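task queued by scheduler; priority normal; single chain, no ligands, no partner chains; default sampling; output format set to structure tokens
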Amino acid sequence: MVTLHDIRVGIQQLQMSQKIVLSMFYLENLNLSEISSVLDVSKGTVKSKLFYAREKLKSIINNEQQ
């Protein structure tokens, strides 16, 4: 079972750009267009960064639980 502590520890291991995108999306509740505007990147880039940040976080958490 994944705990909040596991998620926090995993997030700390992400690259800064991944932390920023996750934070803006999940904590600040910004949509992809808003994040795109703030970061001055395309919406596709935001989607990609968000996808890879989630995948990396899953990988980190899964490796720590084994």
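post-processing summary
- The mean pLDDT is 94.
- The CA atoms of residues 1 and 44 lie 32 Å apart.
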